[in-house]
Design a protein that fits this description.
globular; 6-stranded parallel sheet; 14% strand; alpha/beta
Length: 222
């Protein structure tokens, strides 16, 4: 199947009712295995890359390897740059990716907005999807992270964030950690003005986990 854009996978997942996994891969073996596993269950996959992996594999090499194995796959594959803490890191690497994540959650809200918009303005000129972090990911072993309501993303602030930055894929803190709750609820789902305009892969993928494999497999094996 042809190498596809991240947005194609997201939009099809929303339409068909399935979530899509993203695997951060540090070498070519992991890229191959992730795509082979996706083929085995008949579902799309995002191959993730983190700038900290570059001692093992340059993003240009990871891009070539991903595209090579995607060309042999029977399921859609896209390439995602994960958790960039600065605009410089994100912008300097984005030419190799279908989507990027700018993570300004360690800054205050206004700086996060400014940083995210800087990335969005450049990425959209290149046809690249932008995911952006809002809220705290946290640590399940830290009681304050789990119990502190300030770590959750505020719905109104999330709407403002999307409107001001133009990001395609907000990543809110629906639960402080991915392991804290088995069924997180996307804070944007409560907002009719925001949810139709954007995609939330982090929490929507988790919320759809119970039906991901069956729905995706039925669609892509058809």
């Amino acid at each position: 199947m042809p190498y596809v854009s991240t947005m194609e996978i997201f939009q099809d997942g929303l339409k068909q009712g399935y979530g899509t996994p993203m695997f951060n891969c540090i070498n070519y073996e992991m890229i191959r295995w992730a795509i082979e596993a996706a083929e085995e269950v008949g579902m799309p996959v995002l191959i993730g890359h983190y700038f900290g992996f570059e001692t093992n594999m340059d993003p240009a090499v990871a891009e070539m390897v991903t595209k090579y194995y995607a060309s042999k796959a029977k399921v859609p594959v896209a390439f995602h740059l994960d958790h960039c803490p600065t605009a410089e890191i994100c912008i300097s690497r984005m030419k190799h990716f279908d989507s990027v994540m700018i993570d300004g959650s360690h800054y205050d809200f206004e700086e996060n907005v400014r940083l995210t918009k800087e990335v969005v303005d450049i990425a959209h000129q290149m046809g690249i999807v932008v995911e952006a972090e809002l809220g705290k990911v946290g640590n399940a072993g830290n009681a304050n992270d789990v119990n502190n309501p300030n770590n959750y993303t505020d719905v109104k602030q999330a709407v403002e964030f999307v409107e001001r930055t133009g990001c395609d894929s907000p990543s809110p803190s629906a639960t402080p950690t991915a392991t804290t709750s088995p069924r997180p609820t996307c804070p944007l789902s409560a907002c009719a003005s925001c949810a139709p305009r954007s995609i939330c892969p982090s929490c929507c993928t988790a919320a759809a986990a119970s039906r991901t494999t069956s729905s995706a497999a039925a669609h892509w094996r058809a």
